[in-house]
Design a protein that fits this description.
Pfam families: Sigma70_r2 (PF04542), Sigma70_r4_2 (PF08281). One of its GO terms (biological process) is DNA-templated transcription initiation. Belongs to the sigma-70 factor family. ECF subfamily. This protein is mostly helical. It has two domains: 92 residues, Rna Polymerase Sigma Factor, Chain: A (Orthogonal Bundle); 67 residues, Orthogonal Bundle (Arc Repressor Mutant, subunit A), CATH 1.10.10. It is built from eight helices and no strands. Helix 1 crosses helix 2 and helix 6 crosses helix 7. The protein starts with a helix and ends in a 5-residue tail after the last helix. The C terminus is likely disordered.
């Protein structure tokens, strides 16, 4: 029996496929169960054991005795399992922080958007009556021709009044990038076509 154990270790040290086949048959299930004690996930436990076997092969690991070999196996599985859990905790914390930051940004953007619209409509309310009337009809999706017909004015008057409205709104809303950017977006959107 002692000779069998030493030939197994010799086979592992020399990377004999039969020794690695024996390693799998004799230790795989036990190591997976050991890892599950830490992880509570069979898939993660199997991955850790498979990674260990692959690492042993790639690094051409050598062992002096069967007890040192077993100690290496179980210590490696324990350490890999604890590292996995640590990584999961770090990942969870990162995702929580990311979600929290996203919620804050979204709330801030909602507030900014509401403020932009409040300033936009305040600026529209300050437009001269006819200019405001044309601009609001245009915001409702009316074409230049429809506005001209509805108000009994020329298409050129509609275009001129829209340009004046846009210029006035930009001036009233200030130089803040977001506000001007909104005006630019509105200017290039259906509202200002």
């Amino acid at each position: 029996m002692n000779e069998e154990k030493s030939s197994f270790i010799k086979g592992i040290n020399e990377q004999h496929p039969t020794a690695y086949h024996q390693l799998y048959n004799e230790y795989y299930k036990a190591l997976v169960l050991y890892a599950i004690n830490f992880l509570s996930s069979q898939q993660a436990a199997e991955d850790i054991v498979q990674d260990l076997f692959a690492t042993m092969w790639e690094k051409k690991m050598r062992f002096l005795s069967l007890p040192s070999f077993r100690t290496y196996l179980y210590n490696s599985i324990r350490n890999a399992s604890l590292n996995y859990l640590k990584h999961q905790n770090v990942e969870s914390l990162y995702l929580e922080r990311l979600a929290s930051t996203y919620r804050e940004i979204t709330e801030e953007e909602d507030t900014n958007e509401e403020e932009v619209y409040r300033l936009l409509f305040r600026a529209i309310d300050k437009l001269p009556t006819r200019c405001r009337e044309i601009f609001l009809l245009h915001m409702d999706g009316k074409k230049n021709e429809e506005i001209a017909t509805a108000l009994g004015i020329s298409i050129e008057t509609v275009k001129t009044q829209k340009k004046r409205a846009i210029q006035s709104i930009k001036e009233q809303m200030g130089t803040c990038y977001f506000l001007l950017h909104l005006c630019d977006i509105l200017y290039s959107s259906k509202f200002f076509s």
